[in-house]
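User: Here's a structure from my thesis project, written as structure tokens. My advisor, Dr. K., wants to see whether a designed sequence matches the one we expressed. Can you design one independently, without my sequence as a hint?
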């Protein structure tokens, strides 16, 4: 496969996540009203999806180490299309939650597979640069997702917005079936055996580099998830933006993220992973603190939230490629399992944050503080992780870990 094709495949697979979340967010208030549901149920359409997304990777990862990346990606993407069609025709909020949960399961195959493919083909530092290119593609997809979702929801209704997910999934499936080639050079026939799997996972979770980069990814995603989960209710319900206006706001946020991925590729060759992450963390902490302080001062406006968040997203564009590639870097023979564990922990973070947001938004109607204070909290966590764990364990001098999977060769 050509480098351009690899970046395209990565962009589509990673892009499943913003399409599944960002595109439907402008329609979420309408979905909630249409079904007569409450705020906690509305949040469950997102948090259940993300919990399923995280849990499913624990299965998809070892399965891809056993069968290869291609069959797992094809099967998972086909399941995604089916679930997206089902969610479009849901007759109740309960049905929608079920279908969205299945979407999360299917989405896990794509995103996990993308991280594993990068480790199959590239060494860790090169992998960070290639991952940043794939995440630039994700940013482009995210740019389109929210505005398209807002327009579809406003002009045609929320069901058409949900149906657009099936269209994207079908396009991704076509590219995979037509052009994607297997990247796993040596399959592990014992990858799914409980004893082997437990031993492999045990070696992964004992590795400090895995935790340093997984926590960096998880805390950075926690800040983004806080904005995504609360944003439509704050900007549409509290600050009075239209669905289309909210979609354009999300577009501008995604452009800032794309700029961050370009900055990442410029900084890595000059400063290395650890210093690049530390520089980005300074921007992240500045963003979260300024947003939180303005909220405490009673400043509640679109600009007071978005200007700091643009800076947060610049940092996010650095933390995610470094974190996602760094977490699987020490495990070339078990990239699927390492990717799965890292992704699972990221989504557990989002799940618990979503539960808190659902209650906090209900308890503070007419206020943006659940969003601003949540982002502030995660900004502090990101900076602490980047300036301590990543500095100590971000670029280990020891050779890559030989996990239990290799004993079968």
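Assistant: Designed independently from the structure alone:
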């Amino acid at each position: 496969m050509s480098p351009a094709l690899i970046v395209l495949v990565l962009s589509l697979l990673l892009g499943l996540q913003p399409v599944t979340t960002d595109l439907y967010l402008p329609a979420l208030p309408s979905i909630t009203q249409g079904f007569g549901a409450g705020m906690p149920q509305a949040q469950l359409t997102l948090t259940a999806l993300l919990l399923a997304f995280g849990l499913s990777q624990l299965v998809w990862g070892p399965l891809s180490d056993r069968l290869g990346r291609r069959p797992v990606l094809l099967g998972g993407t086909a399941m995604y299309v089916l679930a997206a069609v089902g969610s479009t025709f849901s007759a109740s909020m309960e049905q929608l939650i079920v279908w969205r949960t299945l979407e999360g399961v299917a989405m896990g195959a794509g995103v996990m597979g993308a991280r594993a493919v990068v480790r199959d083909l590239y060494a860790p530092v090169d992998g960070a640069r290639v991952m940043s290119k794939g995440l630039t593609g994700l940013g482009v997809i995210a740019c389109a997702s929210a505005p398209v979702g807002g327009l579809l929801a406003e002009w045609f209704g929320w069901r058409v917005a949900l149906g657009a997910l099936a269209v994207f999934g079908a396009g991704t499936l076509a590219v995979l079936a037509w052009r994607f080639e297997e990247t796993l050079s040596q399959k592990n026939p014992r990858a799914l055996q409980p004893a082997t799997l437990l031993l492999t996972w045990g070696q992964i979770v004992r590795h400090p580099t895995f935790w340093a980069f997984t926590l960096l990814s998880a805390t950075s995603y926690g800040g983004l998830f806080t904005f995504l989960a609360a944003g439509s209710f704050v900007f549409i319900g509290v600050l009075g933006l239209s669905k289309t206006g909210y979609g354009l706001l999300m577009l501008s946020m995604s452009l800032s993220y794309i700029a961050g991925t370009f900055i990442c590729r410029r900084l890595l060759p000059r400063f290395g992973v650890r210093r690049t992450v530390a520089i980005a963390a300074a921007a992240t902490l500045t963003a979260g603190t300024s947003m939180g302080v303005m909220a405490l001062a009673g400043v509640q406006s679109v600009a007071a939230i978005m200007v700091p968040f643009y800076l947060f997203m610049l940092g996010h564009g650095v933390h995610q490629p470094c974190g996602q590639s760094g977490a699987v870097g020490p495990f070339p023979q078990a990239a699927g399992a390492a990717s799965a564990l890292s992704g699972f922990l990221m989504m557990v973070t989002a799940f618990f944050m979503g539960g808190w947001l659902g209650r906090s938004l209900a308890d503070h109607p007419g206020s943006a503080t659940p969003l601003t204070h949540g982002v502030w909290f995660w900004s502090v966590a990101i900076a602490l992780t980047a300036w301590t764990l990543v500095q100590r364990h971000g670029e280990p001098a020891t050779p890559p870990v030989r996990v239990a999977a290799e004993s079968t060769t």
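When you compare it with your expressed construct, this may help: The chain has 14 helices and no strands.
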